[in-house]
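[step 3/7] fold_predict: job queued, chain A
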Amino acid sequence: MKVFDLDTARELLTLIKPLVETINIKKEELYSILTKMEEEEDKLERLYMESQTKEIDAEIRRCFQKIEALGGVIKGTDPILVDFLSFYQNRYIWLCWKEDEDTILYWHELDEGFAGRKPIELLTKFTL
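[step 4/7] structure written:
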């Protein structure tokens, strides 16, 4: 697993944000097709819609895999949460990003989740 300093993790967001945008667009397409499928009575049309949903689902998975290949760890999908492993004061921590945030604003201990997020300013007094 890759270990990031704060600046490198923030730079990586320039590659991750477009992937997250694509995921959200594809999720909307998927929900739309699934809604139409419930109302569709024609079996052939339903089969076509099912194949579309499988293709869209595969595209979403590929985007998540790209994020992970870059070193991000997916911690949530709705909203999308991505953590980056970092080393701070002789211990590993997570740098934490949520899809609606401009940059990495929070961090938490390895054994804490989203609820344990703390402002990044608590770390920036020191070198990450």
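[step 5/7] annotate
Residues 1-128 form one domain.
The mean pLDDT is 94.
exit 0
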